Amino acid sequence: MTYLEVIDTAVKVGLGALISGLSAYWMAKSKNRDDLRRERSGRHHGLLEQSAEQIECFSHVVLRYWALIVEFVRNKDKKIEPSADRVEELAKAKAELFNVFSDLTSAEAKLLLLGHVEAQKLLRNFGDLAKHVRRHAWEGNKTLTETQMEEFRAQLLDAREKLFNELSRIYRTET
Questions:
Q1: Per-residue pLDDT for 138 more than 60?
Q2: What is the pLDDT of residues 48-69, one digit of tens each?
């Protein structure tokens, strides 16, 4: 073997090693970037799911409170006094409604953290509507009618539907 053949072989081996090394580096960097993107997307979806659960829990409590107040309105119209159990159940529902607002605040914070301002605005609207219902629909309000309560329910359900439509859109499009 001549000196030139040895140099030729060494250059070929060196270039092959260099190309292999660069390829391995590029592949590892690409895989790491994809893994980070998948992990970030998974966390994002997880926070959206947690927010949706908190919102739905809030929604359930609001509608339960609504149902109890409707019962009080119907009984008032029929001049029937509510039972002690129903009065106690309403008191518990009021306390639960007060406490569950913290879940709504937590869900709102998650949406803001993720940068979903439109969803946060819809959530804020839903919460404000629930506050409005709570302030106007209470067992001692003698002017409250079943028609007003049905309007409140329709407004709550409409606000909830808009909010969940936005959350669903985000969930489907964000990766």
A1: yes
A2: 999 999 999 999 999 999 999 9
- What local confidence, expressed as pLDDT, does residue 175 receive? 55
Q: Supply 54's token pair.
A: 């908190």
Rounded CA separation 31/25 (Å): 10
Distance from C-alpha of 163 to C-alpha of 139, rounded to nearest angstrom: 29
DSSP letter, residue 162: H
Model pLDDT, residue 56: 97
Q: Concatenated DSSP letters for 32-93?
A: HHHHHHHHHHHHHHHHHHHHHHHHHHHHHHHHHHHHHHHHHHHHHHTT-PPPHHHHHHHHHH
Contact in structure between 108 and 120 (CB atoms under 8 Å): yes
99: tokens are 């406490």
Q: Which residues contact 17 (CB under 8 A, 6 or more apart)?
A: none
CB-neighbour burial class of residue 61 (10 A; exposed 0-12, middle 13-18, buried 19+): buried
| DSSP letter (8 states) at residue 116 | -
Lookup: tokens for 64: 């339960």
**How far apart are alpha carbons 34 and 22 in whole angstroms?**
18
46 vs 30, residue with greater confidence: 46
